Amino acid sequence: MNLLTNAAQALEGRTPAESELRIATRLTAAGEVLIEVKDNGRGMEEEEARRALEPFFTTRPVGGGAGLGLSVAHGIITALGGRIEVETAPGQGAAVRVFLPVAA
After folding, report:
1. Which residue, 1, 52, 58, 77, has fewest beta-carbon neighbours within 10 Å?
2. What pTM was estimated for this model as a whole?
């Protein structure tokens, strides 16, 4: 849910016709489940992307978020044996990819 919330917040200031949020799932060639949440929002600067999974890091104004969403998601995903990747560029939106092992 945190991934969807972040993607929706990245679209703030865009009209509905300009906004795009995509969710995709698939099985990778390596046999992992991939969940991708992609938006065409503001994107992140390199420093923001590097810190995106850190606890309490946020780009939101004071009171707009605690900066725990991606950190909590990262902790859960890692505990399940998976990983999370962030791909972004300023003005180009962001894609957050979650890779999870297939359950036995």
Report:
1. 1
2. 0.85
